[in-house]
Amino acid sequence: MADEQSAEEINEAIFISGTKETSDVPVIYIDPSELGGFFDNSDKELIEQLESQIPGSADAMLNRVREAESNQNITFTDIAQAAKIKGPFAINSITIGDQEYCVVNKPDNTLDTKEEYINALIYGLYDEETIQDIISNLPINDADMNKIFGRHEGVHCNQEPVIHKHDLLGGEGEADQITLDRFKNDGQDDEALAFKDIRYLATHDSGHSTGVLLDSGDKASLAHFAIAEILKNQMDGEVNKHHPWLENMLHYNSTTNATNILKHDPEGYFKIINIGLEELEIQVTEALENDLSDGNIEMVIMAQITIDSAKGFEDAYRRRALGQDIPDNREPTQLLPQEVEDEYYAREDIQIKIIEKRSKTEAEWQEAEQKHSPSADAGKGYEPGKDGTPYTTEVRGIPTGLVEVDFKNGVSVGTDKTPITHAFDQSANPAPEDIKVVNAKIPPITEIIPPIPVANNSEYSTQS
């Protein structure tokens, strides 16, 4: 027990050292291991922790959180419970007198080893055997993981408050980039690559999908966020449509799906994806030959992000799940002149929320929810409702599907050609509580990655 406690103290000290290394302001710490359970005095314990470090910090932090969340009903209990279940996070821009501070939530004693971090980051995405392979093939240790997340949270202490989803992704990208640069400066290139691969493998966490940003150096955009939200589902949908196992009764069973195909036939999985990506690149390149209009530029930007995200995932999976020696020398996809791409990312009218005001009454919305049941059709890359139309559950502030932008009329047009309000004027934005995306339409992957020209499914067989 003494050794275990000593290891926990060492990991905690490394995490704290990491935050101080990158934060430009003094840091106040929350220790979630010392907070009580869900129905006790965790609020009082949180206040005592903060006040014992810097008097006045408890109320200052609470006011800062309420301001950031636009919610005056948030309590110390809410923050304490978040500290116990969310893992490390930072609350910046806390002013006490003339001094600015940052509050950082430390990892608790169930989240301070390499295995615990990796399991938390990719839990539920892969089977237990694959997760253990990933852990074994990551050349990092407990100290590295705590240093990574300490440095990462320290960078957050220096950032401006987040307004939009892509601002959140941009902040995460900056924190990851500075963290990785520190490792590279220390001669730890393998450790830096390992963490980038973790970001690619955590496909469910669109808010931290920074791998493609770390590879390209591009500014985070709404396009990056939208693609991160749906990419893995789209890849799985394409594989489900074209992999020969799904038509071969010798292999078929009730659990045959893209996840199992990725595990048992990764070469077949990635062959299907790469054929689709090649077709996508050909299509958008042809579209650009005679037309550099805004709509085509955005289409190409999204294609570049799609290609690089998918290839980054493949490289990471091969290195970590399969243990293959894949060099980290892939160049980012460049289908546009760099100056055109830079101009796109600099445009404020692009980097805003695409929204649709709720037009249905609550009763109508509930009726729509019942109509569009969440029964998955893995073969189409999306979940259709009972009437066969694609849908997503309600998403706050951003559609998870790709849209065509009609710049002339100031609207985005869905795949069914219905307009989705595109608020070019920030002053026209509705209040946050009114921002909804209702029944957002997700196109099948073949509308983003074009249909794969298949003569027969034997083309995808990796059996020799």
Main beta-sheet strand count, sense and barrel state: 3 strands, mixed
Whole-number mean pLDDT? 75
Q: What is the share of helical residues?
A: 40-55%
- For the secondary structure, the number of strands is 10
Number of helices: 16
Radius of gyration: 23 Å
| Multimerization status | single chain
Distance between the ends: 53 Å
Structural category: mainly alpha
Strand order of the largest sheet: 1-3-2
Amount of beta strand = 5-15%
Task: Write a concise synopsis of the structure shown.
The protein has helices at residues 2-22, 42-53, 57-69, 76-85, 114-122, 128-136, 142-156, 165-185, 189-201, 211-216, 222-242, 258-264, 266-288, 294-320, 338-346, 362-371; strands at residues 27-30, 89-96, 99-105, 356-357, 383-384, 390-391, 404-406, 411-413, 419-421, 435-436. With 464 residues, the chain is mostly helical. Helices cover 49% and strands 8% of the residues.
Task: Jot down its keywords.
464 residues, 3-stranded mixed β-sheet, 3-stranded antiparallel β-sheet, 16 helices, 10 strands
Structure explained in plain terms:
Helix 8 runs antiparallel to helix 9 (189-201), helix 9 packs across helix 14 and helix 11 (222-242) crosses helix 13 (266-288). The chain has a three-stranded mixed β-sheet with strand order 1-3-2, with helices on both faces. Strands 7-8-9 form a three-stranded antiparallel β-sheet. The chain is mostly helical and 464 residues long. It is built from 16 helices and ten strands. 40% of the residues are buried.
